[in-house]
Amino acid sequence: MRLKLFLAFFAIYVIWGTTPLAIHFVIESFPPFYAAGLRYLVAGVILMVVSSFMTKEKIKPIYWRSALIVGFLMLGANGLVFWGQLYIGSGLSSLLIATLPLWTVLYSWVRSKEVPSKRLFLGLAVGFFGVTMIFSEGILANATSSIIFASLLTICAALFWSIGTIEQKHVSLPEHSYLSTGMIMVCGGVVLLGIGGVTGETFEMTMLENTSSVLAFFYLLFFGALMGFSSYSWLLRQVDVSIVAAFAYVNPVIALLLGWLVVDEEIDLKTILAALTTLVGVFIIVSSKKKTIEN
Predict the structure, then answer these.
(1) How confident is the model at residue 53 (pLDDT cuts 50, 70, 90)?
(2) Which residue from 12, 35, 234, 286 has the highest number of Cβ atoms inside 10 Å of its Cβ?
């Protein structure tokens, strides 16, 4: 159990930190909503096929309704992140998603009426302070209307993902993790492909000529979706949601570093200090909920 928890947290804390850079390469050739939708649709079908060999659980109509709600909120949010990176860098995008733990705790508070502990609030405050340190530098220096709009949509994506995360724990879904995750992915993928069609996105065979985009797409499919999202959904059933959502504080550190190393995105001493501050916030959040993890 301890090894399984470690691998699952590694998938969402570390591997997901690499996905903003992969998105950067994917949208060089592929339209954002189509790319995100196809990624999740294929991953969802794969998981549902695999689950058919692992469980005989029957799929009830209410499961599809629940999967559609969660898929629309969480994976629809991911589509906004894809679109937003047309205008903002991968590091800044991941940084804005780091508001996710704040929205998660606040929505959970509103839904359950249970006031978070003082230690948890402290962790959120420290982590969010680290985010604002980079946010003030990253967006206000050369803000255009496109950058502002894309940034606001990315923050909305974090909010929608948070709501979907909480609702996933309360709606009716299959007991088998692969089956429930696969259904969510299929529904979310269909929604994203529909959004792509409505917004006028098109697919052309010439898009496949960009090797970097194709490889990045398959990286997102296998590591980001099949491994990452499956781990995320499984962890929601095992530990407190605040610990799971804290991935959004670790991901920007990795995304900023990779953006700097690979595509020459700017990073300075203040950014490094802010990234370290977010890690302190994660430590406080996790330590405040450590009793929820099986020792």
Answers:
(1) very high
(2) 35
pTM to 2 decimals?
0.85
Query: Residue 294 — pLDDT band, cuts 50, 70, 90?
Result: very low
How far, CA to CA in Å, does 212 sit from each of 23, 156, 238? 11, 29, 36
- Contact of 51 with 179, CB cutoff 8 Å: yes
**CB neighbour list of residue 153: distance below 8 Å, 6 or more residues apart:** 80, 83, 84
> Rounded distance, CA 124 to CA 245, Å?
11
Residue 238 CA: distances (Å) to CA of 55, 103, 232? 20, 20, 10
